[in-house]
Amino acid sequence: MKIAILSQDPSLYSTRRLVEAGEMQGHQIRVINYLRCYMNITSHKPSVVYNGKLLENFDAIIPRIGASRTFYGTAVVRQFEVMGVFSANESQAISRSRDKLRCLQILAREGIGLPVTGFAHATEDIDGLLDTVGGAPVVIKLLEGTQGIGVVLAETTQAAKSVIEAFRGLEANILVQEYIKEAAGSDLRCFVVGGKVIAAMKRQGAEGEFRSNLHRGGKAEKVKLTPEERSTAIRAAKAMGLRVAGVDLLRSNHGPVVMEVNSSPGLEGIEKASGVDVAEKIIEFVAKNAENGATRDRIQY
After folding, report:
1. Which of 12, 144, 202, 224 has the most C-beta neighbours closer than 10 Å?
2. Start and end of every ATP-grasp domain (predicted)?
3. Binding site membership: which residues?
4. What CATH number did the domain enclosing 165 receive?
């Protein structure tokens, strides 16, 4: 089977592991920098061109689209979809999950547990916004932030007002969420492939750090999920339409709450912490569905 991995950097751990897993299973794997692709958009014979050559006869693609490249990256994924190529994650699902506000609204509509969240652009009613989420302490996030960047814990009302005013001066869209104190700076990363949680880890933030991102010095360990946590992760991925997803949960006093649903979750931390060959599971899922001509409504798990 011929599989393309859409990635800007073939040396990245996640990309390398997918290549290794694919080749181990006997597939022909090619890494393609999606930013260097261009497209012929036509109803007669749509195509994607890379380095001056048509990308033809691919059975499947695995998108590894960077957050800052979502617009163009999803356009390339969509073009492959138009060409009838199976994608591990569809372009619409990637776009949906990358919009943090839209993601939370969809999860809320599906009745999935969330932190109490307020959203604003340039509101002057800061007191009202803080009251919406129950007051300080609160977590304030830039809507476009990634890997914990643009996330601030405001422990007092005055601190929250100062941060919101600063973001307002930048005309930034912000989310204000209740602070889940009982999570104690940790979260759960649940890796969902084909409607199943195949691996999970607990990430603990560095001392004095409320963000648990591994990019910010957090540590990870294998964790056993409760049935409710497992179900929440699966439902969240399904609500986004993602076949491959990293779902981040917090353990709150009122059950698991979803913080984020990631369409291109990294493999390094989860593989090392859980001991699961996640890359192998992804390749198996993609190959099985591409081989059987799966459509949106006929995915095999």
Report:
1. 202
2. 104-287
3. 141, 178-179, 187, 211-213, 248, 260, 262
4. 3.30.1490.20
